[in-house]
Write a sequence for this structure.
């Protein structure tokens, strides 16, 4: 198959504009999320259901912290803290684990309007731009070949990569303009944007990218990921974990550790 | 590259420094895959040789990192697997994108 010669004007007016426009839109979206996050004020916890949810979250955080950092506490204070949480009659975890399971309908209604508006805003800045760019590219730049991918592909990719070009025997390597849109989309203009903006945009970009991927896979995004329908089981699991902890105070080992690190320091 | 030292003991007192180190490593890897894409695209490499260039540049970046750390990985990262080999798949799509773009601009259009 002989090489196809592509006009210079395609490069000037199609290839480079698509790249530049997508990059600009990506930067604009970054600025937009930054602006919206500045505008967002902290939400007040108003409803009773939310208060109890926060209490549950705090209890689990406390027990997890205790299970992780028990080495910092001497023996008697660890035992006291553990008894406070896990005692058979009056421990917090035992009381909490006797709560009834929440049904899914109730947990959906716990999203207050502010959280819904937040999700809508994130969707807006993600999906709408994607759809807009797709429409723009496919309206203006359809029907011709734009370039060539450097690696061989199977015939199955032909429908995706050569949309609008109806030549049957054309090598699958030659791609139409919508495929360069996909390559740019998945390839991660976000990473380049991260490089340019520095480290403070890390959290926003990761969130939108992650959410976009999750929505594309068809999973629903809930605002609180750790929320399960049966908190009782969660607390029971936490309790068994705490009761199984073999406690040893780290200060007892401090002499050996000091010897080890001093040795390592002096030998250098 | 600023890499303060981190000492991990049993309590896993990982400070902010480990996070800083891994962020810098991520940035480094992005630069590395950008360069690999440019090399592969400008030289007009085809198919699997291009992928080989990506792996080679990745290993070169890891080697430079090792030299910079004076081969004492434990003081800067959690493990040598983490620091050298772990992130090879994450920047692959970025490499592909840059490769396609440069290959088209330089060789074809």
């Amino acid at each position: 198959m002989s090489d196809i010669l592509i006009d210079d004007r395609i490069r000037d007016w199609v290839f480079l504009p698509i790249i530049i426009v997508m990059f600009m839109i990506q930067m604009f979206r970054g600025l937009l999320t930054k602006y919206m996050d500045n505008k967002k004020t902290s939400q007040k916890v108003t409803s009773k259901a939310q208060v109890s949810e926060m209490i549950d979250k705090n209890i689990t955080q406390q027990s997890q912290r205790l299970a992780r950092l028990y080495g910092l506490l001497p023996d008697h204070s660890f035992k006291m803290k553990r008894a406070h949480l896990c005692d058979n009659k009056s421990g917090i975890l035992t009381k909490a684990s006797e709560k009834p399971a929440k049904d899914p309908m109730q947990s959906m209604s716990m999203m207050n309007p502010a959280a819904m508006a937040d999700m809508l805003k994130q969707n807006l800045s993600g999906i709408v731009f994607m759809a807009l760019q797709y429409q723009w590219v496919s309206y203006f730049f359809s029907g011709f070949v734009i370039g060539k991918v450097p690696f061989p592909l199977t015939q199955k990719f032909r429908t995706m990569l050569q949309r609008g070009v109806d030549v049957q025997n054309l090598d699958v390597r030659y791609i139409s303009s919508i495929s360069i849109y996909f390559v740019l989309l998945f390839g991660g203009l976000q990473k380049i944007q991260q490089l340019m903006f520095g480290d403070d945009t890390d959290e926003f970009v990761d969130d939108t990218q992650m959410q976009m991927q999750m929505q594309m896979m068809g999973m629903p995004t809930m605002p609180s990921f750790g929320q399960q329908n049966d908190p009782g089981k969660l607390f029971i699991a936490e309790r068994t974990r705490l009761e199984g902890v073999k406690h040893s105070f780290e200060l007892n080992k401090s002499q050996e550790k000091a010897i080890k690190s001093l040795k390592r320091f002096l030998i250098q | 590259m600023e890499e303060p030292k981190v000492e991990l003991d049993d309590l896993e007192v990982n400070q902010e420094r480990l996070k800083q180190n891994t962020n810098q490593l991520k940035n480094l890897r992005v630069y590395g895959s950008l360069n690999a894409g440019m090399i592969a695209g400008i030289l007009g490499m085809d198919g699997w040789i291009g992928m080989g260039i990506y792996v080679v540049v990745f290993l070169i970046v890891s080697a430079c990192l090792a030299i910079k750390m004076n081969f004492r990985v434990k003081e800067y990262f959690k493990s040598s697997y983490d620091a050298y080999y772990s992130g090879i798949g994450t920047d692959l799509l970025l490499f592909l994108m840059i490769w396609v773009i440069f290959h088209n601009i330089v060789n074809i259009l």
In short: Chain A touches chain B at residues 6, 8, 10-11, 15-16, 19, 68-69, 71-72, 146-152, 180, 183-184, 186-188, 191-192, 194-195, 199, 202, 250, 257, 261 (CB under 8 Å). Chain A is about 65% helix and 5% strand. Residues 201-228 of chain A have pLDDT under 50 and may be disordered. The beta strands of chain A are 145-148, 174-176.
